[in-house]
Amino acid sequence: MANFWQKLKKPFFALAPMDDVTDTVFRQIIVSCGKPDVFFTEFVSADGLISSGQQKLLQKFQFSEAERPIVAQIWGTKPETMYQAAMIIKDLGFDGIDINMGCPDRSVVKSGAGGALIDNPTLAQEVILATQEGAGGLPLSVKTRIGFKTVQTEQWISFLLKFDLAALTVHGRTVAELSKVPAHWEEIGRAAAVRDQLGVKILLIGNGDVTTFHDGLKKAKQFKIDGIMIGRGIFKSPWIFNPQVDTSQVTPQKRLQLLLEHARLFDEVWQGSKNFAILKKFFNSYVRGFKGASDLRIKLMETKTLADVEQLVGNQ
After folding, report:
1. Residue ranges of domains in the chain, CATH in brackets
2. For residues 48 and 71, what is the distance between their CA atoms, to the nearest angstrom?
3. Which reaction(s) does its UniProt entry say it catalyses (predicted)?
């Protein structure tokens, strides 16, 4: 089976998986602004994916052809469940599968999944091997952090590099640090050095506090990594993956038009099956940097329907 990772021109850029953010609607908006080289879905529970609540979770795995290459991210602790989830993902037509081994969310960690797997390498191995078997040839990747409570870069990354992974994304903080401190990019560089010392061909992707395309290029070169993953930086500019766009020169009209496109697509795709309030976390991305932006944001936060948004934005 084709491994799209091997065809990417370096350094490549990816949009990070973010819950209630990186759904098919938002990804399609990013395509219109300037798409990254790789998209990831929101992260999905493997247990949930094979449960009676599967249909609701499958919303998170909805995608359009314009979003390829696209990788489905899952999390869990049961090898047999990860195996079954991987088979479902393969049947859905994804280009790759990613295992979340870095999420610091308290409920995820308490279940033993996400970042907790850093402290449980035996289970991490079982999860990786089971997912790989279920993937049936789809390239497998892992997203993780540099440690659980303390920095364990060399020990943990060298462990993960033993597996037949296509790519490894390293977020430059420990699980305990959440997002409270600046990302330790020197540790991401150390992870790349470990990879090079071992002589393996796994692509190394750095993640943490990248806020512009050019900052990503600089970090990729400085820390000798293959790719850059941008997460929260996307909220500063939907055009972050487009080096041809100077965000400071984007007009308020263009920002508001994009907001309308996002709201209309959200309404069209989800048709009430998703809470409209989810949209509100995006308003700050569009309504900023111009006179009256703060007042408009306050009013937008009171909206409950697409018609409310259209009326407010249309009066600007």
Report:
1. 4-235 (3.20.20.70), 251-314 (no CATH)
2. 18
3. a 5,6-dihydrouridine in tRNA + NADP(+) = a uridine in tRNA + NADPH + H(+); a 5,6-dihydrouridine in tRNA + NAD(+) = a uridine in tRNA + NADH + H(+)
